[in-house]
What we know:
Shape: globular
Order of helices and strands: EEHEEHHEEHEEH
Oligomer: single chain
Largest sheet: 6 strands, antiparallel
Number of helices: 5
Amino acid sequence: MFQGATSLHLDAKGRLSVPTRLRDALGEDEGRLTITKHPHGCLMIFPRREWEQFRVRIAALPVSAHGWKRLFLGNAMDVEMDGTGRVLISPELRAAAGLAKDAILLGMGSYLELWDAQAYAAQEAETLKGEMPDVFKDFSF
Length: 141
């Protein structure tokens, strides 16, 4: 299970250095990952096994969800971590998420989200300004 936030920098070639604490978990699939767009403007990074489960669920959606299937499946790119734990983020996916250099990698349970650092700060600030959803009414902190 992935959790926590890490500040990162993409290098000039668009490579992301995966934090050491995550490499073992991601390495269980021999470093094979799948990256795709997220509807909130970031990227989703899946270990290959988790991606296969997600892909099956998305592929099973009805025709009325074809645009969403296109977003997730049509933009998915299979990548592999190199020997030093780096992953190349394609120019298309970097552009889609507005990634330039400074990024935030968030653990979201079965996958990771990769955000442009400024975009994530704005998203988090917007979330904190709003009211908590009803699902948290009986939740104890």
